[in-house]
Amino acid sequence: MEKVKACRLLAEKNMVVANSGNISVRNDNPNTMTISGTGTWFENITDIDFVEVNMDNCDVVNRELSIIRPSKEAIVHASIYKKREDVNCIIHFQSPYATTLCALEDFHMISLGNIPEMIYYIKKYAMVPYAEPGSTELANLVSEMFAEDLNTSVVGIRCHGLFSSGPNIEEAVKNAFFFELDCQVSMRKYLLERKVVVDNLM
Predict the structure, then answer these.
(1) Is 201 domain-assigned?
(2) How many domains does the chain have?
(3) Residue 199: inside a domain, yes or no?
(4) How big is the CA angle at 189 (ends 18 and 127), to the nearest 5 degrees?
């Protein structure tokens, strides 16, 4: 799966809203990555909406040839790549159910793992406290959680959204979709067991 197709699919399936998402891929060129530009809407994205950046400082490679500025989350993507050599694609997304989980004061109240794909594909997920988007603090929190256990493929940020990773674009997309599905199933299960009726959930 190529990156433009992946972005448009994520937008079509409501995994990102407006310009809230970003995606990157590790390049063959050592220590560089290609990332979507700041303010990019996935539903309208094209190949010209991406830019190559140096992972050491997140500066644009060949700045004189590009008018695209990298996503403000570039520092987070770069930090993950540096700590996880097995990761070649990262997606930042804000799907409805998964982002709701991130907003819960105690996300443990919802017991995930109600679909087998969580075991086979996601394997492990983690959550970190809120930090300013695009900040060094956020980059450290998220990348350290990915590095703590190499089976971790999704990390959520309190009241912000999530980062999905994979060895390639298809796997990173799949992990995001399955995590959202499990959040949806798990939250509906939680409400049904407590006989709670909420519009659009029942």
Answers:
(1) no
(2) 1
(3) no
(4) 55
Does residue 38 fall inside a structural domain?
yes
For residue range 55-92, what is the model confidence (pLDDT) as tens digits?
A: 999 999 987 667 889 999 999 999 999 999 999 999 99
Domain range enclosing 114: 3-193
Is 173 within a domain?
Answer: yes
Phi, psi of 100 (to 5 degrees): -60, -45
> How does DSSP assign the chain, residue by residue?
--HHHHHHHHHHTTSS-TT--EEEEE-SSTTEEEEEBTT--GGG--GGGEEEEETTT-PBTTGGG--PPBPTTHHHHHHHHHH-TT--EEEEE--HHHHHHHHSS-GGGS----STHIIIIIBEEEEE----TT-HHHHHHHHHHHHH-TTEEEEEETTTEEEEEESSHHHHHHHHHHHHHHHHHHHHHHHHHTT---TTT-
| Residue 36: strand pairing partners | 50
Asked whether the beta carbons of 52 and 33 are under 8 A apart, the reply is yes
Could you tell me the CATH number of the domain that includes residue 29?
3.40.225.10
How far apart (Å, rounded) are the C-alpha atoms in residues 127 and 150? 15
The pTM of the full predicted model, rounded to 2 decimals, is: 0.94
